[in-house]
Each structure stands twice: as C-alpha cells, then as structure tokens.
Amino acid sequence: MRSGEQSGRDVLTRSVRGQARRVGLGAALGCVHQLGEALVPVLIGVVIDQAVAGQDAGRLALWLAVLAVMYVALSWSFRLGARAGERGAEEAAHTLRLAIVRRVLDARGGAEEGRLPGELANVATEDAKRVGAVNMALMSGIWAVAGITVSAVWLLLTSVPLGLIVLLGTPVLLWLGHLLSKPLERRSEAEQDRAAHASGVAADLVAGLRVLKGLGAQQAAVERYRRTSRASLVATLRAARAESWQTGLVLALTGGFIALIALVGGRLALDGSLTLGQLVSAVGLALFLLGPLETFAWVNAELAQGRASAARVAEVLAAAPAVVGGDAPVPDPVRGELRLRGVRLGGPDGVDLDVPAGRLTGIAVTDPASAEALLRCLGRESDPESGSVELDGVPLTRLDPAGLRAAVLVAAHDAVLFDGSLAANVTPEAEPRSGPADGEPDEAAAGSTDEAADLRTERAMAAAHADEVARSLPRGAATGVGEGGRSLSGGQRQRVLLARALRAGPPVLVVHDPTTAVDAVTEARIAEGLREIRRGRTTVVVTNSPALLAVADRVVLLDGGRIGAEGTHAELVRADATYRTAVLT
Fold it and tell me: Residues in domain ABC transporter (predicted)?
C-alpha cells in the first residue's frame, strides 16, 4: 500500500513538474511585468524631481514617452505570462484527469471500491482542476517575490530604513499567512469530501430514478439527498468562512505593513532625507506592494486547497488493485476451456467445474449471491479465497488482466448503456483498419473490413432481436437511447446489451440473466439466436431461464455454493427436484 501511495504522489509531482518549462516562461514574463510595475512609481518620482520641479518641458515629454513604452511592455508581458501560466494549469489538470481515468479503468480494478461514481467524477474534475491551479499559484508567487525584491532594492538604495522594513517585514507576513492557511486546508478537504459524496448520491439517485418512481420512494430519495446536500453546504460554508477569515486577516496585516512604510517615508521626507520625488516613489512602491502581498494571500489559499485536493487524487491513484499479479500473455489461440478447482469466494464453496471449449454451458443457481461471486471469479474482478480458475490450463492469476478481459467477456446483468444512439451502444466507434504491407492506405481492404464489421453487427442485432428494437424507434438504430438507456423499456435495454456482447465476439462469453425482462416468445427466439451465433465458441449462460437452459449443450446446477447436478435441461427437469424448483417455479 505504501508503494501505491508513493506512486500516487509521483503522478501528482510529474503533473506539476511536467509544466515546469511553461511555468518558467510565464514566471520570467511575470518578473518582467513586476519589474515594470515597480519601476512606474520610481519613474514618476524621477519625473517630479527632474522635470516638474525644474519646469523642464523637454525632459517631461521624454519621461512621459518612457512611461508609455513601459506600459506597453507591462501589457504584453502580463498577457503572455498569464497565458503561459493558465495553460500550464490546464495541462497539468488534464494530465491528472487522464491518470485518474486510466486508474479507474485499469483492468485490475480497485479504484472504485468504497466510492460512488459521482465521487470519482468529482475527483477527476474539481480536485484535478485545483491541483492543476497550483502551477498558476507557484508562478504568481514568483511574480510577487520579484516585485517585492525590486521594491526592496530600490528602497534600500533610496533609504536603508525603508528597505529594511520591506526585507524584514515580508518574511513575517508570509509566515503569518501560512499559519492562517492551515484551517482553510483542513476545511477545504472536508468540503471536497462532502461535495464529492453529494455528487455521488445525486448520480446514484438519477440512475435509479425509474425504480424509485416505481416503488413510490421519491420522497425518501429527496430526503436522503437533502441530508447529504445539507452536510455538503455546511462544509462549504465552513471552508468559505475559513477563507474569508484568512483573507481578511492577511489584508489587515498587509494594510498595517503598507501604512508603516508610508509613515516612515513621510518622516524621512520631513527630515529632508528624501526629496519630494523620492517620497512619491516610496509611497507609490508601498501601494504597489499591496498587490504582491495580496497575491501571497491568494497563493496561500490556492496551495491550501491544492494540497487538500492532491491528497484526494493521490488516494484514488494509490488505491490497491482488486486483483494482484498476472502479466503472462493469454494463450494464442484461445481454445476457451474454463476449469474451476476448489473455488471458494463468498457464495461458491469449493466449486469444481469444467466448461468445455466451444460448447454452450448453462449454469442454474439456487442463490443469486453464488451467481454474482462466480461471475466475479470468471471476469477476475476478484480472486477466489482459495482454489483456482484456469483458462486453457493457465491460472487466471498468472494472466495479464487486460488481455484476459479481451479473451473472456463477462456481460453482467446490471450493465449499463451509454448516452448516445442505439448503434453506438452496440458497435465500437473505431473499427480496426487493415492496409497493405508498406503502410499505405488500402481502400479495398478498408471497405472489406467495413462490410465484415457491418455483417457482425447485423448478426448480433438479429440474434439478440435488438433489430426489432431499432425498427420500433423513430430514427432506427440512429435514435438516441438517453443516459443509461432510460428511453428504452427494460426488455429493450436487455436486448441491446446482449447485442453489444455478441457483437464483441470474444473467444469466451459469459452472460448473466440476459432475458429476464422479455416475453416468453421473444426469449425462446433469443435463445435460438444465441446458440446459433455462438456455435463453436465457448459460451456460459448463468440463468434460471428454461428457454436459455434448454438450448445449452450441458447444464450445471449450483446449489448452496456447490455443484448439485449436471446434465441436459431435460434430464435435470426429470431427475432433480432442486433443479425443477429453481428453474420451473
């Protein structure tokens, strides 16, 4: 776990350091801008001493021209510097978002454990953005240091007391600002935690809206979200109060610091130690210092929030995988023979099961929990507590999880559809293209690939009877199905999901209860279509549907976590009372 935490920190560090060149450029341009800003009151003092006091119109015009050039340089240096800083912040946030998504989608899993989908989305958006903003904060801090340094040097050259006040007082202000940012950091982390949880609950409720309406539980759902949202609001208000106190106190300290500089400068002018122009410059620099010192207050707040968000991002990136080990390639070609020996994982208790290659095997269960546990084993979402699961004689724990996912597809009963058209949910957006050996595009080969892909899609849609669903929609397969397929009925969604799994055409396909929401006639037709399209390839159907089990080459009854009986559907119906109870009642 410690190595995982270190890996998470390394990704965070790289996301910030990866923008070092861009941030460095922005910082250099910002320093030029701050130098110009600090020189403006100095030049005004020079104008007063050399042109206004001496009533020299020529020098006045010259110095005004110098000021005009200075303001042009200020404008462009600020624009280019800010652009580099903002781009650095956005690029860093983008890098983090990709890292978070890659971790969530990692075949070994684990990042989603204990987190709602909305929480992960919040981490990948708001927290990543806050961490990326650290680049802009660091650059702004460098600007502020440059501005204060230039001001302190000029004040030292003009008056040692004024320069010492700036040099000695600024570190004290920074230290106090850091202390004041600590409560903000703690409360910002709590705020993000609560906000992420509220987002997760909201997404969860929206996804189950149809079920909630069917149960008449809308009011309970509203109350649940109201409590969660209230907790998030309280955390946000606490963070806002901490930020307002931190900002207000820092501004008060900064104002007192500026007043001290102005007071000392005024006394020196009265003593004759400063000319009128130098006094104007000193007061102007004191007012200018307000900007860099306020920037420091903002930087402290940004860093406090960035540290809180970085901790949340690192927690996701460092999440322990659900399954460990396994980097061996999947057997090529994949025959598709599955074997379970003494598998124990939650429901199943010492399961010994052989799934022959190229056959359609049905698995009926007396306990749904056993089915869920079996599916997790076959898809390697989790490893068995004891025993082993093998593919073509190779334990799944030795195989690379990503390669295993391509060879063994587990189509879960509760899989979701994505927002988009029906066709986009069945067919991947990008199809592989084949070309000639020299790498030049081959239009004939591409056309052939397109035709083959279209044929696969048509066969999958027909086998799952999702083509009937497409014909019933206003724009056919191009019709949008809505988020989670909410515009479709339960049976229509199941048919589209089955078509998607069949369209993928993996060497081994495991489907779980694919027809619970369709009518008996359609179910029988789907059963025949499934058998036909998967002929010669390993297929496992975990279901208690008589229609699906009837077309299986062999049926296994999983009873109480153990294999209770084996045979064809007809044989088990005649000979096994437990099977009849599970399947026919």
Answer: 328-585
- Give residue limits of the domains in the chain: 8-159+274-318, 338-428+449-584
Put simply, whether the predicted model's pTM sits higher than 0.85 gets the answer: no
Q: Are 488 and 388 in contact (CB under 8 A)?
A: no
At 223-252, the pLDDT tens digits run 666 777 676 666 666 666 666 776 777 778
Domains 8-159+274-318 and 338-428+449-584 share a fold: no
Listed residue (129, 441, 438) closest to 313, CA to CA = 129
Coil, strand or helix: which one is 105?
Answer: helix
Q: Using CA atoms, how far apart are residues 423 and 428, in angstroms rounded to an integer?
A: 9
What does the radius of gyration of the chain's CA atoms come to, in whole angstroms? 34
Closest by alpha carbon to 298, among 133, 499, 75, 52? 133
Q: How many Å separate Cα 390 from the centre of its chain?
A: 33
User: Which one of 3.90.930.12, 3.40.50.300, 3.30.160.60, 2.120.10.30 gives the CATH number of domain 338-428+449-584?
Assistant: 3.40.50.300
In angstroms, the Cα distances linking 101 to 15, 87, 128, 197, 399 are 14, 21, 11, 18, 23
Which DSSP symbol is given to 52?
I
* Amino acid identity for residue 331 in this structure: P
For residues 226 and 213, what is the distance between their CA atoms, to the nearest angstrom?
Answer: 18
CATH of 8-159+274-318, one of 1.20.1560.10, 2.70.98.60, 3.40.50.720, 1.10.1520.10: 1.20.1560.10
Strand partners, 289: none
**Secondary structure letter of residue 434 according to DSSP:** -
Residue type, 321: P
- Sequence-distant (6+) residues with CB within 8 A of 278 are 45, 49, 158, 159, 269
135 vs 82: CA distance, rounded Å = 11
With 0-12 / 13-18 / 19 or more C-beta atoms within 10 angstroms meaning exposed / middle / buried, residue 270 is exposed
The answer to whether residue 562 scores a pLDDT higher than 80 is yes
Strands 508-512 and 386-391: unpaired
187 has pLDDT over 70: no
- Identify the H or E element spanning 302: helix 276-317
CA distance 147 to 291: 9
